[in-house]
Amino acid sequence: MSAELIPTAVMKPRRSTRRRHQSLLQRAARLDHLRRISRLSAIWIFLCLLMPSAYAAPAQRDDKVVRVFLFAGQSNMVGADSRASDAKLYTPFAGIEEPQRDVLFSYCIGREDKAESKGWVELQPVHDMVGPELSFARRVAREVDAPIAIIKVAAGGTTLGGDWNPDEPSGFRLYPLALEWTRKALEELERRGLRYRLEGFCWHQGENDMFQENYRAGYAKNLARFMECWRRDLKAPELRFYVGELCTKTVWGMDHRAEMNAIGLAQRDVTDKDPLADFVPTAHIAIEIGGDGGLHYHYGTLGQLEHGESYADAYLRTLGKEPKRDRPLESWPWTKGSKVRLFVLAGHRNMEGERAFVQDLSRGSKLRDANPRVPYRFSLGGGFHVSADWEPLGPAGCYDTFGPELSFGATLARGSKEPFAIAKFTHSGSQLVDWTPDGSETPSRNLYAQFLEFVRSAQRDLEARGQEVELAGIFYHLAENDMSFAPYRRKSIEQLAALIAASRKDLGRPALRWFVSQQPPTDTEHVRSIDVTAQLAQLAAADPNLRHIRAFDLPGREQELVITTPGIVALGELLAKRYLESR
Question: pTM for this structure?
Fold first, then answer.
């Protein structure tokens, strides 16, 4: 009996995940046992359980239909430079390295030496690598009452213009390989008597196409054709695609800006035109810390786990299952007419809080709790995660992360009884040039206008609530990635000065105070001669409204560039103390 593709509109009530997820392998074994007992009764039970029935409620049918997701692409889909054994370092993802017994997995990963599953197996890391499918499946399984199966075919260093080309595949000929692998995996589901529907296709690829002019120029056409052929060849015209953004936080996001931007624009063009395709932002997620003073090409362990969550969010959004955030500021804490100091926090990966997790705070830490006396609003990841309104200050980052705002607010509250509010604007996948008024050759990454509007909007809203607003200062943590790449490090302080001057002019506050914190800059041979610390000190010495804060003794700096939980807490305390001392 052949499997059936079920319309994606079928919905169902939520039930306990554990009660819902019966092992698909056990179900297949049970059916085989029934067949051995009695051919006639087995057929009858098979029909009752698995065939569409006019008498079965849609929700009941949907509970038994396996949702199949395809994952494909190159190295950042494979899981390059990740280690499943390191997943325990990232507490929100604890246990992800263990097999997910309720999720079926079929995979063919690699180029010359492929890692291949022997039929369907339990979802688990392959060769100690973490792929996005692990966190994707765990997240979706928590929200959706249906069995899940994942087919993954991925190989590093491959191109859409060649390897994945459905019409004229070259190189490793991955399109025909992936198609054949997928068909065989689906046929095996049918042989086991499992009904399924093709639910989504997660695609992350494009880094290698950007290096070849003809592939780069033709990426939009090639991607649209790729999607069209999968739908045709799988006889699934409604198959939905989730196209992952290339990560601008990698070293390629710095030294190949224009090329990467061309691929990004092509991806957006295709997903904008195709109603069954979604562009999935990933530039905000973590990347591996490695060579070249910390810069890397791959997401690594933490990045891959967040990568999968990004696809899960996109898929769940199509089901109307937006991530729930219930953090309203129940009542405004300040009386009308009172002066409220507005503190603006801004910056990149450490101001965002890339590797500071709520779960790593001590159980009794008050930083875990919402503080309704401190209104807080934010825009993180360059607009990826934005507060709807003022919230009580508390943990609100992506993936259970937080930044220095928590300890900053707590320290201010202890040091002063005056009303204040905090607004935070960050993009961990940006570089300093993106913040300057002139921007760069990639206008889609320019942040200056967004940043200024964010500050103005916070001011307007406070004034609309009847408050007198004092813009107490902008607290900016100097761009971490820029320090590891000589062409960017060389221009960083000049660009910072341009940002400060423009903000004062455009906000109409010539004496606006800036507090710029700096962690120890990357100390490798190719950048060491650029003394950015001395340059920043010189800039601050000439500007009475600029405070240079050396955050050189922070804990939690086991790796280049990133600061973990204890260091982020210490950074917030340091910023607040320097402000209080300067009053």
Answer: 0.89
